[in-house]
Known about the structure:
Layout lengths: L2 H14 L1 H4 L4 E5 L4 E5 L13 H22 L4 E12 L7 E7 L5 H11 L1 E11 L5 E13 L2
Antiparallel strand pairs: 1-2, 2-4, 3-6, 4-5, 5-6
Helix pairs in contact: 1-3
Amino acid sequence: MSLDTALQRLLHHYRSMPPVATMDLSIGGYDGQRLRLHAPLSRHVNDKGCAFGGSLASMMTLASWGLISLRLELAGIDADVYVADSQIRYLAPLYADIDVDAELAADADWDAFLATLRERGRARTGLVARVRLPEGGVATYFTARYVAIVRG
């Protein structure tokens, strides 16, 4: 499967979930290591005029889930992906559109994750996601463990 096809399938999957469809998210890019999601502030603004914390948490959860799902699809593995646990640090308010980058955690390895999944039918790995401030720096930082379970 081509990368473009896999990205279109991922976007379609996001939009097929009613709560996610209302977020108006789009895929901002994928460089082989990081998946970027984008959403307009206007859909996520809180009473203070900045991005709603729940939206930031959702976007980081979705970006991390999407990165694993994309990597599995490109590897030809049919599996369900679940978030096992996560932690979020809100560092600064965001008064701009939401751009989230998700990537594998520094101590994790794609090859080991995929090999374990193929061998045992189940594997877990760590991910990191960040919401960047337009002027530089990080508004929100997310760490999580995700589990993949082969279907069938």
